[in-house]
Each structure stands twice: as structure tokens, then as C-alpha cells.
Write a structure and sequence with these properties.
single chain; about 190 residues; alpha/beta; 2 domains; six-stranded mixed β-sheet; 8 strands; about 40% helix; elongated
Amino acid sequence: MIANSSLQDLGSRCLNVLLTCRQFHRDFSRLAWSAAQFLVIHSYHSIPRRLATLRHYPLSSIRHLTFVAGNSDMFENMIHWKNYPFDQESLKLQTLTVAVQRNWGHFWARDDTADQMGEMLKRLCNVKVFIVTKNGAQTKPMSWVEWYRAIVWRLLSEEQRWGFNGPAPVQEMERWIGSFSHELQRFCLEAR
């Protein structure tokens, strides 16, 4: 027969391992979530609704997210984000990549969508690098590089309106540094 104190010692040791395993799980799951590249493909459910299914996991640990914009509604929803990607304040992304769906037909790269993207980027917080990739889609009436230039022009004209030393806007505006890759057919905007 095992003494009562021996049972307590044995139980403590087992629980310590369990507590250690829980700590490992907590620490390593955050690390895994921050290192993983998440891909969200267009579906019938909105992305915020799909993210809600992950509510038991640390959404704040996600650092890299790519979503495939399957139709103009997805760009329309993105343009109306208040301040955060997918209106999820808990997301603090290192990179947010938008890939235009290849078989979408034609992506309508127009001045008005460039204006709306510029407006959204002025408000956007919690994203360090914003990438939009053509992903083999056809564009009209503007070319991909023209659309990128139109977005950058909108951002620059807004900065010039406020001036670098002028009165501060109501909300601190991110400064975006842009680059375009003809090879990869994508553009990248990095928040400074």
C-alpha cells in the first residue's frame, strides 16, 4: 500500500508535467501561428465569419495572411474596412496579401477603385506590408502597373495635402513605401 504523502508527490509530479505540457502547447502554438502563412480562398462565407470559427485560437498570433479575391464583392468589402483588416482589431499582421483569382475573367482596375484603395490604405492599421498580386488574372481598362501608380499617386497626394510638417490629421496616417515587381506582377506597400 502506498502512503498518502507518496500519492501526493506522485500526483504533483504528474500535474507538473501536465502544466508544463500546457505551457509548451500555449507557447509553441503561438509560435506556430505566427510563422504559418494562412491562405483563405473565396467561399460562400465572409472572411470575418470564417475567422470567427478560430475564436478559440490566438488570432492575435497570426502574422501572415493571404486571401484570394474571387470577385469584386471581396474588393468592395475590403475597401469598406474601418481601420483593421477584415474589421478584426485582434489581427496584427506582418503581411497581408491579396491575390486576384486567376479565372475571375477580367479584374476591373479603374481610377475609382484606385481612389477607394487609397482611402482604405490611409485608414488601415495593424498591417506592416500590404501586397496585391495579379496572380495571372487579366486586367482592364488600366494595366496592372497603371493601377498601382494610381493608388500610389492617391497616397502621395494625401501626404502632400497634409504636408510632412503640417497640422496632424485626426488619426495618425501611415506612410506607405511602394514597390512594383514586373516579374512577379505584384505590388507591395510597406508601412513606415
